[in-house]
Amino acid sequence: MIGRLAAVALAGALLIAAAVRADDLVAEPDSYRTESYRAPVPTTLAGARVLSTQDTEAIWRAKSAAFVDVLPRPPKPKNLPPGTVWREQPRQDIPGSIWLPDTGYGVLAAATEDYLKRGLAQASGGDLGRLLVFYCLEDCWMSWNAARRALTYGYRNVAWYPDGTDGWSRANLPLQQIQPEPRPEE
């Protein structure tokens, strides 16, 4: 009888633990995320593959994809006192990536959307079937938004790496300092 009670208690505890974990999951939204971009992300992206660090590393080593970083670039502060030197913070990226900053917001200005479209065409060589891997940082909706947007542009082989450079760095994989792709007005 005691063994049976212990088994029932254990089963109940496991069910409660599973329910708590399910409550922690973030549901995939119906549209783009437009606020609180640094927050837990879903584990899915309809129409795209979601990659682990191990998956991403294998793709990177095989050179079988174009890697696209969409992390925003901090703007130069307005009204800096005369003579103030402004130095942009360097970005450490997965080697070989293209950096298209500010293209992961939920709503894009027309010029920013054109910049993203041109960057993706460059990264993919115009091949809508070329594998594109989107990332930024861990718990950052920017890469989720950008990958979803690429699907709407007709790209058929889209992957999302939700751990981004944080997960890459934790795995002691190489990083490389890169500059963003220039915008037409730059």
Describe this structure in words.
This protein is α/β, with parallel strands linked by helices and 186 residues long. It has one domain: Rhodanese-like domain (Oxidized Rhodanese, domain 1, 3-Layer(aba) Sandwich), CATH 3.40.250. The chain is 36% helix and 11% strand. It contains 5 helices and 7 strands. The chain has helices at residues 2-24, 53-62, 110-124, 141-152, 164-170, and strands at 49-50, 66-69, 91-93, 98-99, 132-135, 158-160, 176-178. The protein is globular and about 75 Å long.
Percentage of residues in helical conformation: 25-40%
**Averaging pLDDT over every residue, what do you get?**
88
Fraction of residues in β-strands? 5-15%
Q: In the CATH hierarchy, what is the superfamily?
A: Rhodanese-like domain
Q: Using the coordinates above, name the CATH class.
A: Alpha Beta
**Which value, in Å, is the CA radius of gyration?**
20 Å
Largest sheet: 5 strands, parallel
Strand order of the largest sheet: 1-6-5-2-4
CATH topology: Oxidized Rhodanese, domain 1
User: What is the count of β-strands?
Assistant: 7
**Helix-strand sequence:** HEHEEEHEHEHE
**What would the principal axes of the Cα set say about the shape?**
globular
Uncertain runs are 8-23
Q: Measure the end-to-end span.
A: 76 Å
Q: What is the domain tally?
A: 1
CATH architecture: 3-Layer(aba) Sandwich
- Counting helices, strands and paired strands, the structural category is alpha/beta
Number of helices: 5
